[in-house]
């Protein structure tokens, strides 16, 4: 199943689970660009994707506060607390290389 199809299924499931009369918030969509470009992105301790993919196709999250960790081989990891609004947010991070 493609990423877009999975996001659609998730959105439809969320809509069907909402109580009648409640408003389902628009999702936050996170676009991540990193140096080095092949860094791994974790949200709230769970693997979220590679920055090479997330820089082209942002992924949906529930709006609100999330902890993002970015890791790449031979670089120091970077932690960031995000307060994501509904709509698209772009984060650009350059990781510091570990001295050899």
Tell me about this structure.
- It is a single chain.
- By secondary structure, this protein is α+β, with helices and mostly antiparallel strands.
- The protein has a single domain, classed as Carboxypeptidase-like, regulatory domain (Immunoglobulin-like), CATH 2.60.40.1120.
- The chain contains two helices and seven strands; from the N terminus they run H-E-E-E-H-E-E-E-E.
- Strands 3-2-5-6 form a four-stranded antiparallel sheet. It has a three-stranded mixed sheet with strand order 4-1-7.
- Strand 5 (64-71) and strand 6 (78-84) form a beta hairpin.
- The longest helix is centred in the N-terminal third of the chain and has 15 residues, at 3-17.
- 15% of the residues are buried.
H/E element order: HEEEHEEEE
Please indicate the percent range of residues in DSSP E strands (runs of 2 or more): 35-45%
Low-confidence stretches: none
- CATH topology annotation: Immunoglobulin-like
Q: How would a textbook summarize the main sheet?
A: 4 strands, antiparallel
Strand order of the largest sheet: 3-2-5-6
What's the structural domain tally?
A: 1
Number of helices: 2
């Amino acid at each position: 199943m493609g990423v877009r199809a999975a996001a659609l299924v998730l959105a439809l499931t969320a809509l069907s689970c909402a109580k009648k009369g409640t408003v389902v918030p628009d999702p936050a969509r996170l676009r991540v660009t990193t140096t080095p470009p092949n860094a791994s992105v974790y949200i709230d301790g769970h693997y979220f994707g590679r920055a090479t993919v997330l820089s082209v196709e942002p992924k949906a999250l529930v709006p609100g506060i999330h902890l993002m960790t970015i890791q790449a081989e031979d670089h120091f990891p970077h932690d960031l607390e995000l307060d994501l609004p509904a709509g698209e947010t772009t984060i650009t991070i350059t990781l510091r290389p570990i001295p050899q």
